[in-house]
TrEMBL record, chain B:
Residues 15-212 form the ABC transmembrane type-1 domain. SUPFAM superfamilies: MetI-like (SSF161098). This is Amino acid ABC transporter permease. Belongs to the binding-protein-dependent transport system permease family. It comes from Paenibacillus hodogayensis.
From TrEMBL, chains C, E:
InterPro entries: AAA+_ATPase, ABC_ATPase_HisP-typ, ABC_transporter-like_ATP-bd, ABC_transporter-like_CS, MetN_ABC_transporter-like, P-loop_NTPase. Residues 2-239 form the ABC transporter domain. It comes from the Bacteria. Keywords: ATP-binding, Nucleotide-binding, Transport. GO terms for molecular function: ATP binding. This is Amino acid ABC transporter ATP-binding protein.
TrEMBL record, chain D:
It holds the Pfam family BPD_transp_1. This is Amino acid ABC transporter permease. Residues 19-220 form the ABC transmembrane type-1 domain. The chain crosses the membrane at residues 20-43, 55-82, 102-124, 145-170, 201-223. The lineage of its organism: Bacteria, Bacillati, Bacillota, Bacilli, Bacillales. The keyword Lyase does not apply. It comes from Paenibacillus hodogayensis. It is a multi-pass membrane protein.
Length: 271, 230, 250, 239, 250
């Protein structure tokens, strides 16, 4: 089920380059069919919701010359689809790295952040950063997540003493926290909000040991869509500057991620 | 347990889609398989060799690759000759991909069943004056069905389950819905949801298997002691 | 009416038919005799093209086909002019007795179901099997299957009927009955070619007897001539093994 | 959208490294499934009481439940269950973790056995029963008759179906990655995951699968020829 | 030597054998005659338990089995004392001529390969098929298949051989040869039961002739008696259809 924003007439028009011409271009947008709360997921009313989803909606309103048409598909399919040009862009809290830049077009302005942290058992004090993970075991990771790339990159830089991580086809967050709680693995690297939401339900004796990164997240464009990416940058910048996106961040992550990691750390109320 | 039942009710609405998808792919695939099998049986030059390659490709490469080829490649290919199919629904693309795959598999099922029928049966039909297709329809196929029903069951059930691959292109089927349900809750209800989804798959596979067994037993009476004597 | 010209058939390197020519008139009943493996079955199968001859022509009334240039249409036409009773019966395994006989009528002759049924039942009655109409082939004795095969062929009213040892599984009484049926049909102008090992049957039924060996026709004559005055030494030998029993009362 | 062949070539060694593991999974489970499937089919064909019902239930379950779920339930579900049982009865009898390779082999074998049983079942019906009777009349025991006469003939029509199953299984073993067994598909996914070159990796893995399976496909064609050659069955009872 | 007591066999509600009792001595050759469908094949198949009788006992030399309590072991033992020539030949389709004959020797008799081969070839020679040793059944004519079937049964040296119309597909010359072979074997003390429709064959070969109808034995006597002085009206009728031809020169 794809939904498109039909009434973009009332949206305030920003000082874009193009005059508010009659011609509206339809953009095909790939979104992840598998839920990734709180970025994008089907809510209880079976409607797509989440930080990324709301951001796209705002963008659609702002960019009058475009109309978004969404399609929810699997992660692999999104990427192949953008590459082949079937979709104009894909939105799924993508991280940025050189390999990906070679393949896809990234916009210049990030639209948000993923605050990633290490989750450990409550009674452990030996892990305070990724550096402390040397020789210890992270929970298995699915190859299609960006978090795994973080670890792989880290290990490339610290080849002599890498973090141990097993590969698995797919793993749920619930499973991973249980593994850590049972002591089978030392730590779980994940998005902070995700962990908080999971543990709100499972109530396992776990804690956030450290914030590892505040990883900017991006929209991925087909290589040919340079103009489009530029328009996105403009609009996104405007949305940040007028405080819309920071507010959105507060709503979904309970914190304004657009401040520095240090600020975020301070804002975050944790023991 | 309550969660299993809850998941069950949330999954159920996706059943018609999964069933119709399976049905379409299976019927299309069987028809295609039949044609392919005949061409191979008659060893029609060139075509026959092409089909061997086709079957090999369709059987040996991963389903997801085939799905991507149809989903992304086919529209581009057809565009070259001026046909626009980009507007077709993902469901349609998935049915095409699965139908093509199913055709390759079914053609082998059909060919093997054909090989199992003694040639004398075909000869008897010819001697009565039936054309080839008449003898197929009235004499050969009924006997092939008797032999092949268990294998057809195998394939139908396989397609039924493999159809979960369509979620890759965003068609939310039973398995896709199960994934959505579990992921939404960060996987907390994974086992429960999978139990529910398994039950549905198992139940329909079982019903289908029963139907085939019923059909089989009914026809089996004729052959019960098949040429026990002559 | 039926004419074979120089029919050749090989299996691999083995030549099983070495140029058979035969001329049969309308209503003739031809018996083919010959030792086991001499090519009798192969010859019958060549006539309706179940086996493709390598050379030769087959003519039935106005239809003439050359073995070297067969078209699908010709084959079908030829087969619709003929019917065959197989040595191993070859009943349709998925059809019961009645359906076995009806099948050709409905599919090939496009006869109405009711009519086909009536005709088939009448024929089954003739071969003494009306009470087995709903048995499947696997439930029939050898002789019963053979009779169903005969009824199936007769039902089609073909111009030529090819019988491959049609009485091999029949007891003497039935042989007599089948003989009556065949004679009756011959009077209606149907041409018949019968491969048989029963010399007395051949004697009683045929207008012409053909003796084959090793893929050749050794001798062809009326039964009287062939049985009691064979021209070839080989024929004489073959016949003598049995004929001595007959009380020469013909 | 051109493929980066150099990149693909550079990743080939990684995939080749995983081939033995995939082969092990496929060959062992296909073989076990072949034998076990045969036993199931025999039990069903001869309608052996109790066993036959069990076989039917077994086939229905292992055929009907998605393989992915079977994997999950056994690998993740069973330890949960065992922990629960251990706690409930205050014992330490059941293991909390299994060897993942062993589980994968077990599941694949049980799974494919259910399917192969149906192929066997169909194959056994394809042979004229009079062949069995002839063998029995010569004084063979049932196993002798099966092995020497019946099965060789049954295989003629069964081999294409076994080939279908074998090839399907070959690709299905990629599901072993759900329990951390890294097969060739897993390697491809991992590479694609870190570089986002899904298209390249998928094309590469498709080629690898095709080449690998092609060898087996040829073998099946050979077997089919071998058995049908022996049988010369097409014209039997021509009389 | 072979004894049948009160053998009953039903197919569904149809009683095909209605209490057959028969006593056969060592080296006897029994011919069974009877109209098609009278239960002759079924009787033979009951003797080696391919068909399970519902009642009755079967005794071969020292082995006696009750149809109502059959054990797997008894069945096997009984089958190893007998061999059967099928009405429809039933050759092993996956074995060539030679292998068809050798199979039982190697598997059941545990004979050495070379020895089995020599013996089989000798037998094939006897039935005139040595030159077809490497043909598969589908490449053989009807009569050739039948002879392989005979050779296969003979090779086993069983105590009892069951023949189901062993000459139905054979030409008169071969019938004579098979007759010689059977007579020869009978002299070695092998017991034989032969279902046949060829009265002359029965006359020439048997020590006793049994006439069956509708699942009952109507009459049993020496050939001379049965053919020329039948006690039962039904036998007389059945015989008369053929016997008239014989020159009463016996
Ligand atoms: N499986 C079966 N189910 C039902 N009826 C059967 C079955 N097998 C045989 N019969 C019936 O039993 C009767 C005896 O059959 P059987 O084969 O013993 O006859 P036969 O004396 O050998 O005849 P023939 O000389 O024609 O071979 C026949 O009427 C046949 O229809
Ligand atoms: N498919 C085949 N391949 C090889 N040889 C064959 C094939 N079919 C038949 N033959 C051979 O051809 C010869 C003639 O066979 P055919 O069946 O015509 O004999 P026939 O005269 O009908 O004998 P019978 O009286 O025994 O039925 C036989 O020697 C047989 O071995
Ligand atoms: Mg013949
Ligand atoms: Mg019989």
């Amino acid at each position: 089920g794809s939904s498109s924003n039909k009434d973009n007439g009332g949206a305030p028009s920003t000082g874009g380059g193009q005059p508010a011409a009659a011609k509206v271009t339809v953009l095909k947008v790939a979104r992840n069919a598998v839920p990734n709360p709180p970025f994008s997921y089907l809510n209880d009313k079976n409607v797509m919701d989440g930080y990324t989803v709301e951001y796209l909606k705002l963008l659609d309103e702002r960019l009058e010359e475009y109309k978004f048409e969404y399609e929810e598909i699997a992660r692999e399919a999104m990427l192949v689809g953008v590459e082949s040009g079937k979709y104009d862009f894909a939105a799924n809290f993508y991280y940025r790295n050189p390999e990906r830049e070679a393949k896809y077009l990234f916009s210049a302005v990030e639209y948000g952040y993923s605050l990633n942290s290490l989750i450990v058992k409550k009674d452990r004090d030996d892990i305070r950063s990724l550096d402390d993970m040397k020789g210890k075991k992270l929970t298995p990771m699915s190859p299609s997540t960006g978090l795994r790339t973080l670890v792989v990159d880290y290990n490339k830089k610290n080849a002599s003493n890498p973090i141990l991580v097993e590969d698995i086809d797919a793993v749920t967050d619930a499973e991973a926290v249980q593994w850590v709680a049972s002591g089978k693995y030392d730590a779980f690297l994940t998005n902070t909000t995700v962990f908080e939401n999971v543990n709100a339900q499972l109530k396992l004796p776990l804690k956030i040991a450290a914030y590892v990164t505040k990883e900017p997240i991006w929209v991925l464009f087909n290589k040919d869509k340079k103009d489009l990416a530029a328009r996105f940058d403009e609009a996104t910048k405007a949305l940040i500057d007028d405080g819309t996106l920071p507010a959105l961040s507060e709503k979904w992550f309970g914190v304004n991620m657009f401040k520095s990691l240090k600020d975020v750390n301070e804002q975050y109320k944790f023991k | 347990m309550a969660e299993v039942i809850d998941a069950f009710w949330k999954l159920l609405p996706k059943l018609p889609l999964t069933l119709s998808f399976t049905g379409l792919a299976l019927v299309g695939g069987t028809l295609l398989g039949f044609v392919l099998a005949l061409i191979r049986i008659f060893q029609i030059p060139v075509l026959s060799q092409l089909i061997v390659v086709y079957i090999s490709f369709m059987r040996c490469t991963p389903g997801i690759v085939q799905l991507f080829l149809i989903f992304y490649g086919l529209p581009k290919l057809l565009l070259q000759v001026g046909i626009h199919i980009n507007s077709w629904s993902n469901f349609t693309f998935a049915v095409i991909a699965f139908g093509l795959h199913c055709g390759a598999v079914m053609s082998e099922v059909i060919r093997s069943a054909y090989l199992a029928i003694p040639k004398s049966q075909y000869e008897a039909a010819s001697a009565v004056g039936m054309s080839y297709f008449q003898s197929l329809r009235r004499i050969i196929i009924p006997q092939m069905l008797r032999i092949a029903t268990p294998v057809i069951g195998n394939n139908a059930i396989s397609i039924f389950k493999e159809s979960s691959l369509v979620f890759t292109v965003g068609v939310v089927d039973l398995m896709g819905q199960a994934q959505i349900l579990t992921q939404r809750k960060y996987g907390i209800t994974l086992i429960e949801t999978y139990l529910a989804v398994s039950f549905i798959y198992w139940f329909f596979s079982m019903i289908f298997g029963r139907l085939l067994t019923f059909y089989q037993n009914r026809t089996e009476r004729k052959y019960k002691i098949m040429a026990r004597r002559a | 009416m039926l004419q074979l010209d120089n029919i050749h058939k090989k299996f691999g390197s083995e030549e099983v038919l070495k140029g058979i020519s035969l001329q049969v008139n309308r209503g003739d009943v031809i018996s083919i005799l010959g030792p086991s493996g001499s090519g009798k079955t192969t010859l019958l199968r060549c006539i309706n093209l179940l086996e493709r001859p390598h050379k030769g022509t087959i003519t039935i009334s106005d239809l003439s086909v050359d073995a070297e240039k067969l078209s699908r249409k010709d084959i079908l036409k030829l087969r619709r002019k003929t019917a065959m009773v197989f040595q191993s019966y070859n009943l349709f395994a998925n059809k019961n007795t009645l359906e076995n006989v009806m099948e050709g009528l409905i599919v090939v002759k496009k006869m109405k179901r009711a009519e086909a049924k009536a005709k088939s039942l009448a024929l089954l009655e003739k071969v003494g099997l009306a009470n087995k109409a709903d048995h499947y082939p696997s439930q029939l004795s050898g002789g019963q299957q053979q009779r169903v095969g005969i009824a199936r062929a007769l039902a089609l009213d073909p111009e030529v009927i090819l019988f491959d040892e049609p009485t091999s599984a029949l007891d003497p009484e039935l042989v007599g009955e089948v003989l009556d049926v065949i004679k009756h049909i011959a009077q209606e102008g149907v041409t018949m070619i019968i491969v048989t090992h029963e010399l007395s049957f051949a004697r009683d039924i045929s207008t012409q007897v053909v003796f084959m060996e090793k893929g050749n026709i050794v001798e062809q004559a009326t039964p009287k001539q062939l049985f009691f005055n064979p021209q070839q030494q080989r024929t004489k030998e073959f016949i003598s093994s049995r004929i001595s029993e007959w009380s020469y009362d013909i | 959208m051109l493929l980066d062949w150099d990149y693909m070539l550079s990743k080939l060694p990684l995939i080749i490294e995983a081939i033995p593991r995939t082969l092990l999974l496929v060959l062992v489970s296909a073989f076990i499934g072949f034998i076990f499937g045969f036993l199931l089919a025999i039990v069903r064909s001869y309608k052996i009481p109790v066993l036959s019902q069990l076989a039917t239930a077994y086939i229905s379950i292992f055929r009907g439940v998605p393989l992915l779920v079977q994997m999950y339930l056994v690998y993740f579900g069973l330890p949960h269950l065992f922990v629960y049982v251990n706690e409930a009865f205050a014992i330490t009898f059941f293991p909390a973790e299994f060897n993942k390779m062993f589980i994968a082999l077990l599941i694949f074998s049980l799974y494919t056995a259910a399917y192969q049983a149906e192929v066997w079942y169909s194959a056994l019906r394809a042979v004229d029963y009079n062949q069995m009777e002839a063998a029995l009349s010569v004084g063979m025991t049932l196993p002798q008759a099966l092995i020497r006469i019946f099965i060789p003939q049954a295989l003629v029509s069964a081999i294409p179906n076994f080939a279908n199953l074998f090839i399907a299984l070959f690709k299905q073993t990629s599901l072993a990655f759900t329990i951390k067994v890294v097969d060739i598909m897993a390697v491809a996914k991992m590479e694609a995951g870190s570089t986002y070159r899904y298209l390249e990796m998928y094309v590469l893995i498709a080629i690898v699968y095709w080449v690998l399976i092609l060898a087996f496909e040829r073998a099946f064609v050979f077997l089919e020829k071998y058995f049908s050659n022996q049988k010369k069955h097409r014209a039997v009872s021509r009389g």
